[in-house]
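It would be a great kindness if you could assist me with a short task in structural biology. I am sending you one protein, given as its amino acid sequence and as whole-number tokens for its backbone shapes. I would ask you to consider whether the tokens describe a fold that such a sequence might reasonably adopt. The full record is reproduced below for your convenience.
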Amino acid sequence: MKENIIAHVRKNDDGTWAPPHRLSDHLINTARLAELYADKFNSGEWGRAAGLGHDAGKSRNAWQKYLEIKSGYDEEAHLEGKPGKIPHAIHGAKLVEDLFDGPGRFLAYCIAGHHAGLPDWSSAEGTGQSSLKFRQTQVKGLKDIDEFCINLVRSAKPTSPPWKFAKGLDLSLWIRMLFSTLVDADFLDTESYMDQDKSGNRGNYCSMSELLTRFNNYIKQLDKNAPNTKVNKIRRNIRTKCVQMASETQGVFSLSVPTGGGKTLSSLAFALEHAIKHNLDRIIYVIPYTSIIEQNADVFRSAVGYDQVVEHHSSLNEEDSTLKSRLAAENWDAPIIVTTSVQFFESLFAAKSSRCRKLHNITRSVVILDEAQLVPVDYLTPILETMQLLVDHYQVSLVISTATQPAFKERFIDKKRFPGLKNTKEIMGSDQEVKELYQSLKRYQVDFPDNLNSISSWEEIAEELKQYDQVLCIVSDRKSCRELHNLMPKETFHLSALMCGQHRSEMIEMIKQKIKNKEPVRVISTQLVEAGVDLDFPVVYRAFAGLDSIIQAAGRCNREGKLSDPGKVVVFVPPRKAPMGILRKAADTTHSILLTNSDPLNHDVFEEYFSELYWKANSLDAKDIISLLNPDLQECSISFRTAAERFRIIDDSLQKTILIRYGEGEKLIDLLKSTGPDRWLLRKLQRYTVNVYNNEFAEMLKRGSVEEIYSNMFAITSSSEYSKEIGLLVETYFDPESFIM
């Protein structure tokens, strides 16, 4: 290869051009990294071939001439998809197809999409001009690719796939994993040239053994300072059981622990011990609500160190629009990742390079689905099939952690096979041991309404709540939350997703302090507090909802077991039904369970409840994700992009993210406005965002309440648009708090 064939260029700080990044160096280094990553799932030769071929198209004279413009070079010439950019990825894709025949198609998807994202083979939706099939027809020969590149790729022909692919999602997941290794390797080698400071700051994390030592020291101190109560004794026993079960072989585990049983630290004890036993690289916590993430991430940082934990739940997903934003993308290289269900599951079905980049780092890990009962039902079949594939082929151990275990095992529902998870091992032991555990941690009495058709007005509920000095009331939507809060005394706390994460955390800490000091404290909240947030009230009210929600809400009552009598949980029928969709169906399922069970809160009832709920769902694969990703074997036709567009737990097209000028958010927003995005800055800004519907956003934009401070990033114009009591001042609709995920 000629010495002057270039992959990337950059300017020095003084404005002069640095020595260019040679294409031969970039291809070889990218191939080395991709091979290393793909080796984790026995596909190293495939990663190497993808790395060597991904930028072969840059060796063409047309691309090299394009790089050299007017008075110099274009730093962002390699970013495809922008107006005026010359393509190069499709030439590498066509090259591997021509050189490797049938198996080359697997690599062609990865190479063609390493900037623009995984394509569909042929698109039935839209014009189809972004499809791999169409784009390959636009390549008018490969003779102008440098001979050195062609020989380099030819020498790396893979032998055969690492296993025989099953029907369904097996092949498409493997290709996406290969794609992830290529994208991350390309990013990192490019970054090592473009931004040496950023590159030098990566890695340097502790080993799992070092983290376990830190964790054990933390636990010793915690146990030493904790009162020797019945609840704390049970928590220690649960943690001990988790450590014992960590020596089991890799696979699917369930962790059935009642609310208040200390699942967070116990699951981390299991994960650390299990990771060391099986030489795993990281622990990934998947959590439904950011309110829990904020709390749990703080616990993990206290236990193992601040810089060993990465929170990834930003709605500020960067597009592949600029070099800087690409280099700031997250690749989950830390030993402990705490992320949302939305981020995790949507990434597993994503097409964009920025979202898929991290996927190969899921391999060789312990994945903990915390509050697993909240896995989105409309996508349950593709999610569970994918999780089983991660266990079968990617050295993942999966932990289903919740107080209300969903019915995830293989079964038949209404004579239809439910393809759930196989060979699940319960960490807490036998069914009888689990029942005894739940009985030992029962700390409250739940009172259901005598008449399920008798509606209580907000005024009536407010009057009841005023009778208690310390009380929590949870409702199912933010409109109800504000209506009820307006009827309460001025000092009453309000918690909802219209408050940014930092604000919610501060409010929750204030509430905890008041509870600890035995001061009066009344709280009106949406369901964001009912799963995992460590609040401990003597009295909890819950608007009628799914059985799992009621149980989770009850977990905020007498949590530490300090009351002489059981805590009081009151379920009431509110003036507004649960929002349409799965929340309404969950409430309806609870209604039928109450009619047929004398003890609806018995642990055995959960399976009946979830089985009925899944049966009531319109579909467990509502968007036909499996059919889109189940390839036609003759053409290997897979619809990666269409599937990614359909797999939207939260529909991005219906919402906008707004940055909030609250506390440090004011300074961070101004910094983003002046300097643009960087990884550390976007991580900090995660704490200062609120999501709203498009019509709400349009109203705020119309009255000048929000402004665009960076490309497609919006912030409130003034702190006066945000209340320190109730959050963002926007008209509330029927929203079911789904945007907090």
Summary: The domain at 208-313+330-439 is CATH 3.40.50.300 (Rossmann fold). The two ends are 49 Å apart (CA to CA).
